[in-house]
Amino acid sequence: MKILILGCNGQLGRCLNDQLVNTDHEVIYTSREQIDIADFEATKKQILKISPDLIINATAYTAVDMAEEDQQTANLVNHLAVKNIADICNQLECWLIHVSTDYVFDGKSNVPYREDDITNPQGVYGETKLFGELAIQTSGCKYIIIRTAWVFSEYGNNFLKTMLLLGADRDELSIIVDQIGCPTYAHDIAKSIISIFPHLHLEKNIHGIYHFCGDKPCSWNDFAKVIFSEAHSLGVRTPNSVKSINTIDYPTLAARPAYSVLDCSKIKSYFGINNSDWMLGVKTAIKNII
Asked: Which residues are catalytic?
């Protein structure tokens, strides 16, 4: 199978690269410099030339707060460019695996979100990601959309790396305690995507949306404490104390969902994929960083 990965230098793209080192598939990795998805005509020309069997879209505009002020760019990358990619996939009759977000929900639930629950994004980032999902669904292409949440790894910019950076300099940190979600190790997302490959050429109707995230809900404060506990055990400098604060005490441009837990039973049922063991992911990521 010929696989085209868009966004190979991002967090998920680099994890896919690591996980596909010994694959028998033909994998083509492209960065923004090689295929700029914001240039629709050039993207179409390049993808048609490659003619892949599967496109994995690991690109996204993920700056949640900046999206509130730069709505045009967020919409271009997360929605319009995704629509263009889906239309190309439909023309080629190739599969598209696209990664989306828990931010399509409003976070007002108190039970894990299922794939068919009502969406109600509270900010531009979530709204543009939802528009991207809808564009894929109406394109006619063969698709898998994977919604995930609180992604971290040894690569890129993420909460784990920010905590390690801040913890090395400060004796005390204040971390939000009233937002609940499931941290997800990016390597586990990559593994889950690869686990889907063998199913793509079967006759079963598998196209649709799937949730994949960490196995244990926690607050950002809990997440930070796990990070610091693991870092401390590995000899990394950590703060002396982690205080609890509420969302109201830490205002941001974009609203964050208060509850971002995703129900992952569908991806388990269809593909036998288990939730990300995020605590093991924290340990692995820190070991790879230090």
From this structure: 125
**pTM summary value:** 0.96
How far apart, in whole angstroms, are the C-alpha atoms of residue 256 and residue 138?
28
Coil/strand/helix, residue 217: coil
- For residue 204, pLDDT over 90 is answered with no
Contact between 123 and 254 (Cβ < 8 Å) = yes
Report pLDDT digits (tens) over 171-183.
999 999 999 999 9
Domain regions of the chain by residue span: 2-158+183-215+263-277
Is the CATH number of domain 2-158+183-215+263-277 3.40.50.720? Answer: yes
**pLDDT tens readout for residues 68-98:** 999 999 999 999 999 999 999 999 999 999 9
Measure the CA–CA gap between 268 and 263, rounded to whole angstroms. 10
Distance of alpha carbon 17 from alpha carbon 154, whole angstroms: 13
DSSP 26: E
